[in-house]
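lol forgot to send this yesterday, sorry. struct tokens for the thing we talked abt
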């Protein structure tokens, strides 16, 4: 803090001059800035922002409605009688140019106020107004001169060190018919995500994507006959979706959330999504937050989350329903041809017999083949598709009383099963309490 912003020492017998009050104002303003600015990074931007579309057709750029904080901490609200802001006449031939909202900075020894409204070279100009006495029992009005904040709209090439500036828009071009075309992708610095349509649309879109994926995962996990089968990745992704869906809904419904906070949370979501969507299981490298380049900051993260939410997560294990046709005969339809070509099949069996006995006898009692060949297999000594005992696969539910067998696809009878996507299974003999399940496991 400089001596120009030091506090006034008030003492008895002081000969008051305007300088004392001006110094007190400088002290209080600097004290407020020193206390507030460290509390939030990127603590400037718009809280309301609307461009006058009609004036764009006339070659002018104006703010129809806007409020917020300038980079030096100056609050503003337009339209307002306390703020003087004229439209910018966009010069002919202007292309790819940034437009800034400006206000004069406080400089040591510089004049801050001009008493005449026509003088706009200072930070404030004098405005005449009448104010009421707010004390009960006292009436009347007094004429006062108050300060009107002088703001401006300027192209980047006209900026200098005397101005505090904040980007407002990017001009694509001024057309031959004088119409001004703005870059719809550009987002000025914002203090709230809901203050800009594009940021608000992104939050709405992500909420919808996360909600849709959560519902799909929940339905798949809860599908009858597959309880406990869903891949562990399904549970992890559902957990991430369930964590971020309420947060995204919270942002949508109106709290004043800074874009920096939203960006930090979306980085977490994108990082979690990379676990499931990226081959490397690692997130890509994202740029640091840039308050004056919000579109460049948010777009890569938004796109990564979109891609992850749109990715198809396949179940590693699918139960194949066995239809009991009676007399030891079962039939099954295989819904997905990829299961046959890119996976292996497991038969789970339980019976009122020791597991070791089942491991040894069931392969000799079971005949598996295409439905049109099963009768011939039963009537002859041909084994059909063989089954071999294996340990319980981790992809399917484990039950202590079940024994697991893998179907051997090297059999000559496997090709007809692959073509028709149908198989038949016959169990010879009597196994009390026999229960069979069949699973297809992707590799």
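and heres what i got for the seq, position by position
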């Amino acid at each position: 803090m400089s001596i120009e912003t030091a506090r006034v020492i008030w003492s008895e017998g002081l000969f008051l001059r305007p300088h004392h009050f001006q110094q007190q104002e400088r002290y209080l303003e600097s004290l407020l800035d020193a206390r507030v600015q460290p509390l939030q990074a990127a603590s400037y931007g718009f809280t309301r922002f609307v461009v006058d579309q009609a004036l764009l057709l006339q070659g002018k750029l104006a703010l129809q409605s806007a409020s917020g904080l300038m980079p030096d901490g100056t609050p503003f609200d337009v339209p307002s009688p306390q703020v003087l802001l004229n439209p910018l006449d966009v010069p002919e031939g202007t292309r790819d140019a940034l437009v800034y909202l400006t206000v004069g900075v406080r400089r040591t020894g510089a004049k801050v106020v001009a008493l005449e409204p026509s003088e706009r070279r200072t930070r404030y100009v004098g405005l005449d107004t009448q104010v009421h006495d707010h004390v009960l029992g006292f009436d009347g009005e007094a004429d006062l001169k108050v300060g009107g904040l002088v703001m401006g709209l300027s192209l980047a090439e006209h900026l200098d060190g005397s101005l505090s500036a904040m980007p407002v828009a990017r001009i694509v071009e001024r057309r031959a018919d004088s119409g001004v075309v703005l870059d719809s992708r550009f987002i000025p610095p914002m203090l709230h995500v809901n203050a800009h349509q594009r940021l608000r649309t992104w939050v709405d879109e992500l909420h919808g994507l996360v909600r849709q994926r959560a519902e799909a995962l929940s339905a798949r996990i809860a599908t009858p006959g597959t309880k406990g089968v869903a891949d562990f990745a399904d549970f992890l992704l559902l957990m991430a979706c369930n964590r971020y869906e309420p947060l995204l809904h919270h942002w949508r419904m109106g709290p004043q959330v800074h874009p920096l906070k939203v960006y930090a949370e979306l980085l977490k979501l994108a990082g979690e999504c990379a676990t499931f969507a990226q081959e490397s299981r690692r997130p890509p490298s994202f740029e640091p937050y840039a308050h004056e380049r919000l579109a460049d900051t948010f777009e890569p993260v938004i796109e990564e989350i979109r891609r992850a939410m749109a990715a198809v997560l396949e179940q590693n294990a699918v139960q194949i329903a066995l239809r009991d046709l009676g007399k030891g005969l079962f039939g099954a339809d295989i819904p997905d041809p990829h299961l046959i070509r890119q996976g292996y099949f497991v038969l789970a069996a339980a019976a009122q017999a020791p597991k070791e006995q089942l491991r040894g006898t069931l392969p000799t009692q079971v005949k598996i083949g295409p439905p049109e060949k099963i009768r011939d297999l039963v009537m002859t000594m041909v084994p059909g598709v063989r089954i071999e005992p294996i340990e319980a696969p981790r992809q399917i539910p484990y039950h202590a009383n079940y024994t697991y067998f893998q179907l051997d696809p090297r059999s000559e009878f496997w090709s007809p099963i692959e073509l028709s996507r149908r198989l038949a299974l016959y169990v010879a003999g009597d196994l009390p309490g026999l229960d069979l399940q069949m699973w297809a496991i992707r590799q």
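Residues 45-190 form one domain. anyway ping me if u want another try
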